[in-house]
C-alpha cells in the first residue's frame, strides 16, 4: 500500500474514535438518566458539551498543530480524550460528567483539526478531494458503530462500561499514531492568510450554520430515536441497532451524493431535494410501524446533502481567505452542534413525549435549506 493511503487509513481509524466517544452518552442515554437522575435536557447538554470546546478551539487549533507538530498534537489530544472519558464514566453527578465531556471534547476538537492538516499534507499534490471525502466518512462510521453496539453493551454491563469502551477507541488511536503513523515527507506550504471581508464573514457564518443544523438533525435522530423505540417495547440494544441504520446507509450514500453533484453541476437542487424529503421522513418516523424502513430511506436521501453543502465555502472564497473562513465556519458549526442537543432534550422534558426530539430534528433538517438560501443570496452580492 502506498504510504499516503496507509496514512489515510490510520487517520480514518483514529478519527472514528471521536464520533464513537461523542455518541457514547446518547447511545446509553436512558441508563444515564436513571442512574444520575438527570432530566432529558441535561442528557442533551452532556451530548452537546462534547462539541462546545470547538467554539474556542476551532480557530487556534491549527496554530497548536503548527507549533508542536500535527502528529504530536494528535497523540496528546487522544490522551486528553481518554482522560475525559474515564472521568465521565466515573462521575456521580451531572457536574462531574459535564467536566469529563468538556475535557474529552477539547481533545477531540484539537485532534480533528490536526488530522485535517495531516490529510492535506499527505495529499497536497493529488487526490485531495478523495482523501477528504474518505476522512469525512469516519464520522458516520463512528456514530453508527456507537449506536449499534454501546446500548447492548450497557444493558449487559453498565453505561459506565460502555463509556470506558468508547474511550478505549481513542487509546487505540494513540497507539496507531505513535507506533505506525509517519509524518508526511513534505508539509503543504501555507499560503498567506488575508482578513475576511464583510461578505466573506456572512458566507462563513451561513455555511457553518447550515452544516451544523444539518448535523444536529442527524445526530438527534440517531441519539433520541432509541428512546422512542424503547417506549414501543424495543430493548435498548435492538433500538440502537435500528436507529443506526440511517448512519450505515449514509456511509455509501454520502460519497455517491458528492459524485452525483459533481456530475450534474446542480448542488442547490440536490441539497433542497435531500433536505425536503428527509424532513418528511423524519416527521413520519413516530407514526411508522416499521421504523427501520423510514430510517433506511433517510440514510439514502441525506446522502445528497453533505458533498455539495461542504463544498460551497471553498468554491466561494479566494484561497488566501479560505483558511480563516473555514475556521470561522467551523466555530459556528460547533456552536450550533452544542446547542442542538439540549434543545432536543428540552422538547422531551416539556412534552413528556419520547418522539418530541424527532420533531426538533425535522425542524432542523428543514432549517438547513434556509441556511443554504442565505449563503446563496450573500454569494450573489459584490463586496462594496
Describe this structure in words.
- With about 375 residues, the chain is mainly alpha-helical.
- It is built from 17 helices and no strands.
- The radius of gyration is 20 Å and the shape is globular.
- The N and C termini lie far apart (about 50 Å).
Counting DSSP E segments of at least 2 residues, the number of strands comes to 0
Query: What overall form do the CA principal axes indicate?
Result: globular
- List the helices and strands in order: HHHHHHHHHHHHHHHHH
Number of helices: 17
pLDDT < 50 stretches = none
Give a topology summary:
Layout: H1 3-27, H2 29-36, H3 40-49, H4 53-68, H5 70-89, H6 94-122, H7 128-156, H8 159-179, H9 198-231, H10 236-243, H11 245-264, H12 267-284, H13 291-301, H14 306-310, H15 312-316, H16 319-351, H17 356-380
Helix pairs in contact: 1-3, 1-6, 1-7, 1-8, 3-6, 3-16, 4-5, 4-6, 4-16, 5-6, 5-8, 6-7, 7-8, 7-10, 7-11, 9-10, 9-16, 9-17, 11-13, 12-13, 12-17, 16-17
Quick description:
With 384 residues, the protein is mainly α. It has helices at residues 3-27, 29-36, 40-49, 53-68, 70-89, 94-122, 128-156, 159-179, 198-231, 236-243, 245-264, 267-284, 291-301, 306-310, 312-316, 319-351, 356-380. Helix 12 packs antiparallel against helix 17 (356-380).
